[in-house]
Write a structure and sequence with these properties.
Layout: H1 14-23, H2 32-46, E1 56-60, H3 66-73, E2 77-82, H4 85-98, E3 103-106, E4 120-125, H5 136-147, E5 148-160, H6 166-171, E6 172-173, E7 178-181, E8 184-188, H7 192-202, E9 205-212, E10 219-226
Helix pairs in contact: 1-4
């Protein structure tokens, strides 16, 4: 399990990264290949027999809104939350341009008190959970559990396993399993079994799970859990 985190965090620092991406003319946080892979994963999720065909969706760490808008295209009632004001502005612009209805709000995923208990049918981790460090992880998972309706679904897609990229290995602190630079913990690359234990420990039941192994980059754990 995770050791006590001894590093600082800088979640608001994501805003500068989004601002640079937007100003550079990028389509979003991800490059095109990464986005197409992520898009296929989400479309496959929506086609899964275990997944609801309608309902209220919350994406945590919604970024520029691309995943949320995939759900909106298919008729789900969509909300997104992200700590970056630039990302939320970007998501609203995309929704407007696509004539899609979605609610995007700036906020902290460790405290989602703006939504009542049992508001959502589905919560999607928009590659946010691996950006959450230390005790904040339990806060996010508890909030996710709270805002879901009984029987609601939680989809997670998160980095896991051992770092493989040389630059990531240099920044990896094996004790805390965090990528650290400039004294700030930026990513948590947990062992898959520890991540599953975290989620089950909150009260979720794991419906299915898959590790997408990679030779060159960190593996990815995707899972569907039920409240």
């Amino acid at each position: 399990m995770r050791s006590k985190i001894k590093f600082k965090t800088d979640y608001p620092g994501h805003d500068a990264l989004y601002r640079r991406r937007k100003e550079s003319g990028a389509a979003g946080w991800n490059d095109e290949q990464t986005w197409q892979d992520w898009r296929r994963e989400i479309v496959g999720l929506m086609g899964s027999p275990d997944f609801p065909r309608s309902g209220k969706v919350l994406e945590i760490g919604s970024g520029a809104g691309d995943v949320s808008l995939l759900f909106a295209e298919r008729g789900y009632q969509v909300s997104g939350i992200d700590i970056s004001a630039t990302a939320i502005e970007w998501a609203k612009e995309k929704a407007s341009n696509a004539r899609l209805k979605a609610n995007f709000e700036v906020g902290d995923v460790t405290n989602m008190g703006r939504w009542e208990n049992g508001t959502f049918d589905i919560v999607v981790d928009g590659h946010c959970l691996h950006c959450i460090i230390g005790d904040d992880r339990a806060k996010v998972l508890k909030e996710t559990f709270r805002v879901l309706k009984p029987g609601g679904m939680f989809y997670v897609s998160t980095m896991c396993g051992e770092p493989k990229e040389p630059e990531v290995i240099k920044m990896f602190d094996a004790e805390t399993r965090c990528m650290v630079w400039d004294g700030v913990a930026r990513r948590y690359i947990g062992r898959s079994e520890d991540i599953l234990m975290e989620i089950e420990g909150i009260g979720f039941k794991i419906i299915k799970q898959e590790i997408q192994a990679s030779k060159d980059t960190e593996d990815n754990l995707s899972l569907l859990a039920k409240k």
